[in-house]
Amino acid sequence: MRLKNLPLKKKQHLSFGIVLLLMTIASIFSIYRMSVIKDALDDVTSNWMKRANTISTLNLNCAELRIKQLQHVYTFDETDIKTLEYEIINLIDQINNNIDEYEKLKKKSIKKELYTKSEKKIYSDFNDAWESYQDYSLDFFLLSRNNQKQEAVQLLNNEAQKTYNELSNSLLALVGLNNSNSIDAAKEAEKVFKRTRSFTITISIITIIISILFAGFITERIMNPITQLEIAAGAVGRGDFDIQIEIDSKDELGRLLKSFKKMALSLKEVNNRNEQQAFQLIAKQNELQFKNNQLKEKTESLESQKKEIEAKNLELENTMHQLKEAQNQLIQSEKMASLGQLTAGIAHEINNPVNFVLSSINPLKIDLEEIIALLEKYQTVIQNKNLFSTFEEVEEFKIEIDYDYLISEIHSLLKGIEEGGRRTSEIVKGLRNFSRLDEEEKKLANIHDGIESTLLMLRNQYKNRIEIIKEYGNIPEFPCYPGKLNQVFMNVLSNAIQAIPDKGEIKITTFLQEETAVIKIIDSGTGISEQDKQKIFEPFFTTKDVGKGTGLGLSISYGIIKDHNGDVEVNSVPDNGTEFIIKLPINK
Prior knowledge:
The protein has 588 residues and is α+β, with helices and mostly antiparallel strands. It has three domains: 3-250, no CATH class; 287-434, no CATH class; 443-585, 2-Layer Sandwich (Heat Shock Protein 90), CATH 3.30.565. The chain contains 16 helices and seven strands. The strands form two sheets. Strands 2-4-5-7-6 form a five-stranded mixed β-sheet, covered by helices on one side. Residues 325-338 have low confidence and may be disordered.
């Protein structure tokens, strides 16, 4: 064994015997204090820092859990939802595993009396917050699986948000406390080292006085590593972790230098990681500023498109108003030839603004989805990097404008515009059907299409008041005058609607009876007296007030049915509704 690797005790025996007692005392004291320093350094690396790393991992998993839950709310694809649910459950398991690992380290810390009351209090607050957050997570799952998206969002943004903030603050406090305790433990080790050095130097001076010849060797072997340790400790205290320590022996001082070097490297890694996170935060702030500018431009573009659509909708409403006035005039005058020409013209005029509205909806949806995706990325970055305090003003503005309600309202408005365009398009289709009133030749047609077109034209007269019950049978297309049959359905259904003063129902049943198509229209209205029932197909007979009917509708309808070689029956009891039975032969 080389001399420098011998224990200090043997070096003293070989050096001199006169100073044996003094050197023995010095060695025993030094060894004891070195063990104290080594234990302190081991506490930093194996306890304080492990707890800090465990808590940091726990904090990252909690933040990831929050992000996955927010993504789950805004995800509508079933596969993505199931994937997110699996990831959320896995994250909860990882968090509980982190807590179990921290509990093990905590027990070791308690045995070594390294677990402070303040850490105990902060961890207790975190544990309570975590238990509450798990309950909210369970409620969130239940709401999401019941398709209660809005309630799930409110839960995450209200109670769960507050609990998560408490949980996150507790974790940050635990990380800070453990880092602070690690530094305090390192400083305490430095103090112990300095006291040990002072005592050793004192003994060395006494030894030099007694025997200067032997002191040089002992001093060199003891003071060289101690001096390195002093320089390294001072550098670490100033925040300089790039220290160079030469370990040329395997004795107690060599092991001490090795432990100190290991601690310095660990502190350097922690410091570098903190600096890297700081640079990442700065980069993310710049990115968020850029994204905010993009969001502002997209919002302005969206507002411009919204104003254009509103202007077109106003134009559409004016056109619809004019259409209704023209339609009322046509019904009152019963002028069949001019009805077809006018409705065809109206259908052509209204089709242009309808097409514009329908063609504008998809680009508007795409722009809106891009803005929402941008907002979600912005929210994800804030969640991942815990930038709530940095963007507190932005978050307050989101709350002030009720951001979640605003997004849902935009979607609702888009759906309303799209539905309005679709219904208007259907009205145009119905008007085109009615524009064929003066057809001279029969055509193959489906009577169900005519009934549906008529119901669409009359929708404003019965919606929210009368329930339409349809029981359609399997009736094939057959030769007929579809425009004229539409006029029959219009007259019969109009009378049925007007016969129901308040709420009621109209039942439409169709079926094939041998070679005859049968259409039954039954209303729950006021009914027709026996005397009036004998006259309802006579020209100019009406039971309506003066100015509200010409008395030609059913008379014309009767003639149209007869032109089809068909028949019509009326069954009615006063105050018990009316039944019209229309029979049309379908033989070709």
